[in-house]
Write a structure and sequence with these properties.
The complex is a heterodimer of chains A (277) and B (163). Chain A is an alpha+beta fold and 277 residues long. Chain A has six helices and ten strands, in the order ββααββββαββββααα. The chains are: A alpha+beta (277), B alpha+beta (163).
Chain lengths: 277, 163
């Protein structure tokens, strides 16, 4: 009988991204430090570095004064970068992006949380340290994003979300479960993460044809804005007083994603991707 | 409408109000129609490795349903089934797809090759598989009668992912 399968053998995770949000956008000092940043990574980690210019476009009524965007670099300055490592097929294997006020790390060859988490934190730590970001900025939030993908091993007309999702799940509307393969479900909600800290969750689930195969993509974002910003690398890495470390926050967001999938996917799929029990 | 942010905080009420960031813009932005996260995804849905391999097995099963050489054996249904089950154990997000063929003795064979290595792995339909791997500068590694659900050993996957 036709069934849904993780898109890549036992791997359902097409991408994991982890990002930190800064209080103000990256400035032109980032552009001045790019050579140092390049040297802080090996060519095996990130062989390619591209500077990024960010342009601000403002719309205003004729005669209205133009207000500058707080903390933004001049339009002509380099104020961001892309560090990338490509796969043999030319697609991205892993990347670090610094654009506007977000520094994000992206992995498309996900192995395990135990292996990826320290790598992701290490990359971000190295960027913040090399660029001396905390000398002039603060970290105000963190984002964790998982894009899971499942392909249908059968004819499109036989595809049905009911073959992948639990009928009693609380994240996807019941009416999509027997509506073939063309549908989408989008939702957002705030949920407590720990103590006074909450996370905004965004879940976009899309079903359709992906390169001639029917598939379902489960895109879950967890965005946590801290009650007070982290003002130093030591604070962010180690936590301070009752405030959690970055790693502890990420662990909670990761757990929230696993719990979401446990509620959403049927037992068979949970078993296949190692989330059962 | 002087500040770019005003585009998003116009007269139409956003679906959600969330302003916990003490300064600067929030990590996600409000629009009258949706909320979107400002970190883009990098993944491209360029290929379907699981489905490609299962389609290949279906094609082989159809093509080799009769003996094609004098004295050759046709792979059994369970050999193909074992091969399908094995696909679900492969970490194909970082291990490339193997070539799949059938051998004249009825084996369903998975094959990886690179500039300095080759791996052969086969199923006869008894719920087990065998493999042989050769990498330049290393001793060959091999294994027999490994249950399909155990998947390929880590050292084999490490070689296969070096392409």
């Amino acid at each position: 009988m036709a069934q849904y399968l993780p898109f890549a053998g036992r791997n359902a995770i097409a991408e994991m991204s982890f990002g930190i949000q800064l209080a103000t956008p990256f400035d032109q000092k980032v552009g001045e430090s790019l050579e140092r940043l390049r040297r802080s990574f090996t060519t095996d980690e990130f062989p390619k570095l591209d500077p990024v210019q960010v342009f601000n476009i403002s719309f205003a009524n004729i005669g209205s004064p133009q207000l500058p965007v707080s903390g933004a670099a001049p339009a002509s300055a380099v104020s961001g970068f892309n560090l990338t490592k490509l796969k043999a097929d030319g697609s991205i294997s892993q990347a670090i992006r610094a654009i506007n006020n977000i520094l994000s790390v992206h992995f498309t060859e996900y192995t395990s949380w135990a292996e990826i988490k320290p790598r992701a934190i290490g990359y971000v730590r190295r960027c913040l340290d090399t660029l001396a970001i905390f000398d002039r900025n603060q970290v105000t939030g963190v984002l964790l994003r998982y894009v899971d993908r499942f392909t249908f091993d059968g004819a499109p007309e036989n595809a049905s979300a009911g073959l992948l999702f639990r009928p009693d799940n609380k994240f996807v509307a019941l009416r999509v479960l027997d509506r073939g393969y063309q549908w989408q479900s989008n939702s957002g909600w705030v949920e407590p993460l720990v103590g006074p800290v909450s996370a905004f969750n965004q879940l976009n689930v899309i079903s359709g044809l992906f390169e001639a195969a029917v598939g379902i993509v489960v895109d879950h974002n967890s965005v946590c804005n801290f009650p007070a910003p982290y003002k130093s690398l030591a604070e962010m890495i180690g936590g301070k007083d009752s405030r959690l470390s970055l790693e502890a926050v990420l662990d909670l967001q990761h757990k929230a994603n696993a719990n979401l999938l446990r509620n959403l996917l049927n037992e068979k799929m949970l078993d296949t991707i190692g989330l059962k029990g | 409408m002087n500040n770019p942010d005003m585009i998003f905080f116009g007269a139409i009420a956003p679906y959600i109000s969330y302003d916990s960031s003490p300064s600067g813009s929030s990590i996600f932005q409000h629009t009258p129609h949706a909320i979107y996260v400002t970190v883009p995804a990098t993944v491209v849905f360029r290929n379907n490795p699981t489905k490609d391999l299962l389609d290949r097995l279906t094609e082989l099963k159809k093509s080799y349903s009769q003996p094609w050489l004098p004295g050759s054996s046709v792979p059994t249904d369970s050999a193909f089934q074992n091969a399908r089950e094995f696909v679900s154990t492969l970490p194909l997000s970082y291990v490339p797809k193997p070539g799949i063929h059938v051998a004249s003795d009825g084996e369903v064979n998975f094959h990886w090759a690179g500039p300095n290595f080759k791996i052969d792995l086969g199923f006869y339909g008894d719920g087990k598989f065998s493999y042989y791997a050769l990498k330049e500068g290393s001793e060959p590694i091999y294994g027999d009668d490994i249950p399909v659900q155990d998947g390929a050993p880590q050292r084999l996957l490490a070689i296969a992912s070096t392409t």
